[in-house]
């Protein structure tokens, strides 16, 4: 041992000689959200081998939970190891081939991100643009479908950079009438706003574990319809399909056999601890029916923040109530204040996280997340008190 020690040229980091210390904070930003005790406890359970029958059973239960949360009976419903970005890539890389046309609806950063990924894989990307804070009408979409004749339409259900909730009713039927598949990003909305994959004729839907589902980041639920899976379906003989050949490993035939057929195929070591947590977060979602709780928008905690008489008043960055994302509320930065001063003050003095803008809203808005177990009136009142304190004590320019 002495000889081995004498060969070391890099000293042990002093920080790693101390026990891990993680502060307690209320996470009211756009994600991640706080993790309930039941899900934290699941992640601390002992590992099992990814080929063990108990792990396959948990995967089956996760799949059933995803089908419930998405309101779908799609057989190809699974969890991709990674963030919502990984699910976005898995969806685009399995639906598109080089030269295929995709129409991307962009009213915030996530449409921009999808367009960037599609371009990298060699697709012909056409953009349908709206200013931040606005949503797309069926007329807008139909005009784009007629003009570009895409194989896939990408649209964001909950645009977390701007706080917009995109209406989906009639969109799937419209896309299919024009021989196009509908791909929906629901990372910031699943569990907090109603979404019904089969009824709304959505072909590919994905989300992320760390937002309304209240699990640690690292798992991304995704589901493919039979129309998206099978070439030559009723969308036409040129329809894209994840059966045409995968460019990504995450949805290769081996992974599909593992999730769809439950066969213990050797793919790669799965993130077992993350799967324990995801099993529990889908269980909690099934138990509390979170998406249904927001059907009455006026009763949701987020509506309190934009009601008259609060510290935020009514300076919402999204005008129409029906277009406001209930999980992430965007409000304009009060005049004369720097958003960084406000967010830093809340973190340092109240142990609370909110966020500034992202992409097209940088420097313009504050983004406040109320997701899953964090979405309570008590947390809203605590936040409003902290914001009053911040506006009294943070520097303000009168220019």
UniProtKB/TrEMBL annotation:
Signal peptide limits: none
GO biological process: glycine biosynthetic process, by transamination of glyoxylate
Name recorded for this polypeptide: Alanine--glyoxylate aminotransferase
SUPFAM superfamilies named in the record: PLP-dependent transferases
Binding positions (substrate): 367
Reaction catalysis annotation: L-serine + pyruvate = 3-hydroxypyruvate + L-alanine; glyoxylate + L-alanine = glycine + pyruvate
Record-listed N6-(pyridoxal phosphate)lysine modification sites: 211
Chain segments annotated as coiled-coil in the UniProt record: none
Top-level taxonomy: Eukaryota, Metazoa, Chordata, Craniata, Vertebrata
One protein family per Pfam: Aminotran_5
């Amino acid at each position: 041992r002495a000889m081995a020690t004498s060969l070391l040229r890099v000293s042990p980091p002093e920080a790693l000689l101390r026990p891990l210390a993680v502060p307690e904070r209320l996470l009211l930003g756009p994600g991640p959200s706080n993790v309930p005790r039941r899900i934290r406890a699941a992640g601390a359970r002992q590992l099992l081998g990814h080929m063990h029958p108990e792990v396959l059973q948990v995967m089956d239960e996760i799949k059933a939970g995803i089908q419930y949360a998405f309101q779908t009976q799609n057989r190809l419903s699974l969890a991709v190891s990674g963030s919502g970005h990984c699910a976005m890539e898995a969806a685009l890389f399995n639906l598109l081939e080089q030269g295929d046309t995709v129409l991307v609806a962009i009213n915030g950063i996530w449409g921009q991100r999808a367009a960037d990924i599609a371009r990298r894989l060699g697709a012909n990307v056409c953009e349908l643009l709206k200013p931040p804070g606005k949503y797309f009408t069926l007329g807008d979409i139909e005009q784009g479908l007629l003009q570009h004749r895409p194989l896939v339409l990408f649209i964001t259900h909950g645009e977390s950079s701007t706080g917009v909730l995109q209406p989906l009713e009639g969109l799937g039927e419209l896309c299919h009438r024009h021989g196009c598949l509908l791909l929906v990003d629901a990372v910031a909305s699943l569990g907090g706003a109603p979404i019904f994959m089969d009824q709304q004729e959505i072909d590919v839907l994905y989300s992320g574990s760390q937002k309304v589902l209240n699990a640690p980041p690292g798992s991304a639920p995704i589901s493919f319809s039979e129309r998206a899976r099978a070439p030559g379906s009723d969308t036409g003989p040129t329809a894209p399909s994840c059966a045409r050949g995968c460019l990504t490993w995450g949805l290769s035939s081996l992974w599909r056999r593992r999730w769809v057929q439950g066969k213990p195929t050797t793919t790669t070591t799965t993130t077992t601890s993350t799967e324990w947590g995801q099993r529990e977060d889908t269980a909690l979602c099934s138990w509390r029916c979170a998406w249904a709780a927001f059907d009455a928008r006026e009763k949701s905690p987020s509506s309190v923040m934009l009601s008259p008489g609060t510290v935020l008043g009514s300076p919402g960055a999204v005008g129409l109530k029906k277009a406001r994302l209930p999980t992430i509320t965007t409000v304009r930065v009060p005049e004369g204040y720097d958003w960084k001063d406000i967010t830093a003050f809340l973190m340092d003095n109240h142990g609370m996280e909110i966020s500034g803008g992202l992409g097209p809203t940088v420097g313009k808005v504050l983004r406040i997340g109320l997701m899953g177990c964090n979405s309570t009136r008590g947390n809203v009142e605590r936040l409003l008190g902290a914001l009053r304190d911040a506006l009294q004590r943070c520097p303000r320019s009168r220019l």
